[in-house]
Amino acid sequence: MKILEYTFEETTKYLNKEFGKGKFHAAGICREIFKKGNKNITKAKEFHDSKELASEIMRRISISPGIILKTEYEANTVKYITKLNDGLNVESVLVPMNSYTTLCISSQAGCRFGCIFCETGKNGFNRNLSTEEIIGQFYNAKFYLKKSSIKNIVFMGMGEPLDNTENVIKAVEIMSDQRCFNIARKNITISTIGIPDQLEKLGSNLNPVPNLAVSLNSAVNSTRSKIMPINKKYNLSDLRTALLSYPLRNSSVFFFEYVLMLGINDSYTEARKLVEFVKPFKARVNIIPYNNNSCADISSPSYDKVKEFSRWLVEKSIFVRMRTRKGSELMAACGQLGKNFEGNKSNS
User: Fold this and answer.
1) Is the pTM of this model over 0.85?
2) Whether residues 38 and 151 fall in one domain
3) Which one, of 107, 101, 46, lies nearest residue 82 by Cα?
4) Are 231 and 205 found together in one domain?
5) Among 270, 269, 250, which residue's Cα sits nearest to residue 260?
6) How far apart are CA 137 and CA 129, in angstroms?
């Protein structure tokens, strides 16, 4: 029983089937493991008079979140590398906010989509992470790195979450389960390049849906196809149609991620097309200056250029946030994860 892959209800069903027990004992298991990080459930009050039952359940439970190989620090930003059971490594990042911590987690070892500004895709695709491996990044951060202030989860690490939709959906269910980690769906964000059928799958399987951040980076098909090959298969019209059908929560907005690259997508024409694309949506545009990596001959725009591009959007009543760099010296910022993973390289 890989307990990190079980919601409270699934734990209840398992106990009922195997032991004739139910929610009472399931509550004790989930509290000890998900709330306290305690693998010894015999200490739970629910098992006070049934130590043999607790011991038998413990023999069946496995917890394999991966091993933290290394932690690196830049100010209060922490990047940690997790070694998985098959020897592959993934990176996760803890980002300090004003009163809480955001955890950026990975959904794949590598990535198959080859966006030219992203380091992860340069090394190719190895495999999807299991639900346990996704949840394990949270588990390790909370209980081994002692980061109890995590209130926000973003699927913005290595890989494309909607290329591993089933396991990501399951991970979101466990993270948001009140008896497990109890992270509200409004505090979970999935970042995606935009795969129409998987957006539909996400929207139809999670209610309420988590936040959605769309890696857009250009609203001009020719430009987007050059920097994001996925656009050759699903163009901007396909993406727009899929987003218009997405069951966005009433209180939520779409986050459009825009990595600004000097001389590539920073012109006034690009800004004007971006305005046209996002206008039909409740949306915020996050402007992210390109973070240097080894992917391509790309330069980051100056601060003045970032302000100018942002101003063009604001003048058309677009809500814009200029993202500040956190963790870039660690190669932990947007587009930089996977830089040092020579052993993870794949031919795919």
Assistant:
1) yes
2) no
3) 107
4) yes
5) 270
6) 11
- Tokens for 145? 């790195």
Residues 43 and 96 in one domain: no
Cβ atoms 155, 255 nearer than 8 A: no
Write down how long the chain is. 348
Token pair 């993934």 is found at 90
How many distinct structural domains can be found in the chain?
Answer: 2
Phi-psi group of 75: left, alpha or beta (phi > 0 → left; psi -120 to 50 → alpha; rest → beta): left
CB 6 within 8 A of CB 14: yes
Contact 22, 187 (CB under 8 A): no
Q: Are 203 and 113 contained in the same domain?
A: yes
Active site residues: 334
Distance separating alpha carbons of residues 277 and 318, to the nearest angstrom: 11
The predicted-structure confidence for 299-341, as pLDDT tens digits, reads as follows 999 999 999 999 999 999 999 999 875 544 444 445 445 555 5
Structural domain that includes position 7: 3-60
